[in-house]
Amino acid sequence: MSASASGAKREQWSSRRGFVLAAVGSAVGLGNMWRFSYLTAENGGAAFVLFYLLIAVLVGLPLLLAELVVGRGAQASPIRALEHFGGRRWRPLGGVFVLTGFLILSYYGVIAGWTLRYAMAGIVGGFAADAGAHFGEVASGWDAFAFHGLFMGITIGIVAGGVKRGIERTAVVLMPTLFALVVGLALYAFWLPGSSAGYAYYLSPDFSKLLSASVLKDAAGQAFFSLSLGMGAMLTFASYFDRERNLAGECLTIGGADVAVAFVAGLVVFPLIFALGLEQAVGGSTLGALFITLPQTFVELGMVGRLVGCVFFAALAVGALTSAISLLEVVVASAVDGLGWSRRRAAWLAGGSATLLGIPSAASLDFLGLLDAVANNVFLLGGGLALSLFVGFAMRDPSAEIAPGTVAARWWPWWRRLLRYAVPAFLIFVLAFALPETWAAGVAFFASAGG
């Protein structure tokens, strides 16, 4: 263990492998496994992939490194870490990170509960013949809340076990499992007749669609969500890291693994969709295609479809679990550091509260969609902007925090210049389009609810 910003002994990862797998698990989730593929299809195919990669490298990686620097340097959770380097006036930003993770977890657990139920259905009795009616039963009401609660219970139990015995042990098992499932599905899709049309759809560039500000917003939101930026997750995980590790190297490893899984997931989704004759699902409802169209086709394929569907939803559930663990850990670590609670108490109280907060999302798909828009378009982008300004201007010498375990490099000053000027300018531009759109969505939702 090492001393934290508060002077108390702090848990540590037992190995570099454990940290990397846990951090990659935080980044890899439903956003990579499904959302990335649909945004790619709707926004220019391979052109969007290149655009996303550009944003991930020039905006995402600098901010990811910033979170790692602050977390490891302070050896504390978000609120105390920002106070450690910037004084009490920066504590509210840490509070925003904690709130963001808590908010996302509340509805993320609902969607994850759906994937858990579908995976279990594939094992126990097969997928329902009437997939549309079945999703209506699963997506909202008591069934949705029950599986949301089950998923959250698993997440809470893992986080309550601690960094080494809970989070790290789980990541070491689940992440290789997830990689194996995704690669296996990609190989299966490759051999399906008609899959070549899916590759063509996924990998053919359409640069004309990149001229839209909406595409820019989607690419930025996807980069932030998939890399777990703007919510303090990477900051918290880095706080359990010793000072002898190469932070720049870990940053590249996490970012590269995250992008790789998202890309390979596209090599699963689109060949599968086109080989099964589901082209009409592309560009339509993302949830509809995932939880209605695909399960319906799995039923028609008989036992082979049941097996493939079970593996597909199991991969989604595993990805969702590793991400949910990191979201809850942000809140738990903050309660342990700031309130002096035991880890077990913090995990059950914070996780239980997030479960209860998920009731409206379990009751209404529209409410869930609104929360997702607010989290992605406001909290994540806004948190990233604030963090960029914090490390760029408020920290005295962030490069000194990279130095332990890292050979001095000429790019360090350029990294801080990116955080001071280029990254904030880009995020302000994106927020200028995202905020009005989110406001309009909120007004429409409450008008509909009031009517």
Can you summarize this structure?
The protein contains 19 helices and two strands. It has 451 residues and is mainly alpha-helical. The radius of gyration is 21 Å and the shape is globular.
Question: What does this entry look like structurally?
Answer:
The chain has helices at residues 16-27, 30-42, 46-74, 78-86, 91-124, 131-139, 142-160, 163-190, 195-203, 213-226, 233-238, 247-275, 286-300, 303-339, 343-357, 359-363, 365-394, 398-402, 412-450, and strands at 2-3, 9-10. The protein is mostly helical and 451 residues long. Strands 1-2 form a two-stranded antiparallel sheet.
How is the secondary structure organized here?
Blueprint: E1 2-3, E2 9-10, H1 16-27, H2 30-42, H3 46-74, H4 78-86, H5 91-124, H6 131-139, H7 142-160, H8 163-190, H9 195-203, H10 213-226, H11 233-238, H12 247-275, H13 286-300, H14 303-339, H15 343-357, H16 359-363, H17 365-394, H18 398-402, H19 412-450
Antiparallel strand pairs: 1-2
Helix pairs in contact: 1-8, 1-12, 1-14, 2-10, 2-12, 3-4, 3-10, 3-12, 3-17, 3-19, 4-5, 5-7, 5-14, 5-15, 5-17, 6-13, 7-8, 7-14, 7-15, 8-12, 8-14, 9-12, 10-17, 10-19, 13-14, 14-15, 17-19
